[in-house]
Write a structure and sequence with these properties.
By secondary structure, the chain is an alpha/beta fold. The chain folds into 2 domains: about 1-175 and about 340-370, Quinone Oxidoreductase, Chain A, domain 1 (Alpha-Beta Complex), CATH 3.90.180.10; about 180-315, Rossmann fold (3-Layer(aba) Sandwich). It is about 30% helix and about 25% strand. The protein has 13 helices and 19 strands. The protein has helices spanning about 15-20, 50-55, 105, 115-120, 170, 175-190, 205-215, 230-235, 250-255, 270-280, 305-310, 325-335, 355-365; strands at about 1-10, 25-30, 35-45, 65, 70-80, 90-95, 130-135, 135-140, 140, 150-155, 160, 195-200, 220-225, 240-245, 260-265, 280-290, 315, 345-350, 370. Strands 3, 5, 6, 10, 11, 18 and 19 form a 7-stranded mixed beta sheet that branches. The longest helix has 13 residues, at about 175-190. It is globular.
Length: about 375
């Protein structure tokens, strides 16, 4: 079938993207689903910093590629061997296609499954096949999803079936931003009511961590960002304190507000200065949880003696330590119950023609999560 899609032809073009235009909207060919694969109609796809890192060539991928990895849609066709899904199901796409039987999947840690890593590097689906084509030559899949398109063929293992009373433009965020941010709170930290926390970096992941902290009963909750408007939003969502990251008195202000530092500091910016800031805000016995992905060559240095004498910890959190088939439905239930107001993080909807400009806004930090609506 012929579909409209957002194709990234060259990584590393300079911003503003409204001028350099790294993404072109083109008609491409999408084959039907093979064994274990599913054709979905993409209803909404979120613009994420992971997409931005690919555009900027911080995370190289095979190009040209149809980008996009955070999405929700409707199943339209299933291939042979698909058992969990059927046409008409509403689904959320997740960016780790776990195998279900490796040591990590057996240990209920499917976010660490490596079965799709080769496919991701080669720009294929989990099976090694490519269902995307166009006349100019090879066209690659992005993270096994390629959801900046009208339709996508993906592995069944990349999809979570969801209830149909959740608006799909909201559900789209649950495949990346929500599982990463909320999951870091519920799964990685396993925070208890009354424990104190800070969130450094109030993008989509950081703000989801914040609403997760509110839902978990953390107190006090400190929000840290470079932009005053992000602090205002964080306070409206339940943060008890907000501080500019550039403030020279930041550490002392947080120490005073939290009686000596926080129990957990969540770094969600994907930048080493943010990691340093988060570590400095910890109290004795505190834990730094980092869910932001920096340049792969970045290295973090810390003073080791205080790590020992203060019993501090540094932990990574990939995909919120989530089991998507377990956690996405639970988090959607919390959203419908009013406890995870994810809809308040949506900055608006765009059509294909606005996608380069929308990534400029993401660079500037003036939006949290804009969603591409292919039918606009």
């Amino acid at each position: 079938m012929k579909i409209k899609a957002a194709v990234l032809h060259q990584q590393g073009l300079p911003a503003p993207y409204a001028v350099s235009r790294p993404i072109r909207i083109e008609e491409v060919t999408l084959d039907g689903p093979g064994e274990g694969e599913v054709l979905i109609e993409v209803v909404a796809a979120g613009l994420c910093h992971s997409d931005l890192s690919t555009i900027a060539n911080v995370r190289p991928r095979k190009v040209p590629t149809v980008i996009g990895h955070e999405a929700a849609g409707i199943v339209r066709e299933v291939g042979q061997g698909v058992r969990r899904l059927r046409p008409g199901d509403h689904v959320v796409a997740v960016f780790v296609a776990s195998c279900g039987h490796c040591r990590y999947c057996e240990d209920q840690r499917p976010n660490l499954c490596t079965s799709s890593w080769t496919a991701r590097a080669e720009g294929t689906l989990q099976s090694g096949a490519r269902r995307l084509h166009f006349d100019q030559g090879p066209l690659y899949h992005y993270t096994g999803l390629s959801t900046f398109a009208e339709y996508a063929v993906v592995s069944e293992n990349s999809l979570v079936s969801i209830r149909k009373d959740v608006p799909l433009e909201v559900a789209a965020l649950f495949g990346c931003a929500v599982v990463t941010g909320v999951g870091a709170v519920f799964n990685t930290a396993r925070i208890r009511p009354g424990q104190s926390a800070a969130v450094v970096g109030l993008g989509g992941v950081g703000l989801n961590a914040l609403i997760g902290l509110v839902a978990a009963g953390a107190n006090p909750i400190v929000a840290v960002d470079m932009l005053p408007e992000k602090l205002a939003l964080a306070k409206s969502l339940g943060a008890t304190h907000g501080f500019l990251a550039s403030s020279p008195d930041l550490r002392q202000a947080v120490m005073d507000a939290t009686w000596g530092g926080v129990d957990f500091a969540f770094e969600a910016a994907g930048a080493l200065p943010a990691v340093n800031t988060a570590y400095e805000l910890l109290g004795r016995g505190g834990t730094l949880i980092s869910s932001g992905l920096p340049d792969p060559t970045a290295k973090y240095a810390y003073a080791h003696a205080p790590l020992v004498s203060d019993e501090k910890s540094i932990r990574g959190s990939y995909m919120g330590s989530c089991d998507p088939k377990r956690d996405v439905p639970r988090y959607l239930d919390l959203f419908l119950a009013g406890r995870l107001p994810v809809d308040r993080l949506r900055s608006g909807d765009i059509g294909f023609g606005q996608i380069n400009e929308a990534f400029d806004a993401l660079v500037a930090g003036t939006i949290v999560r804009e969603t591409l609506r292919p039918n606009l």
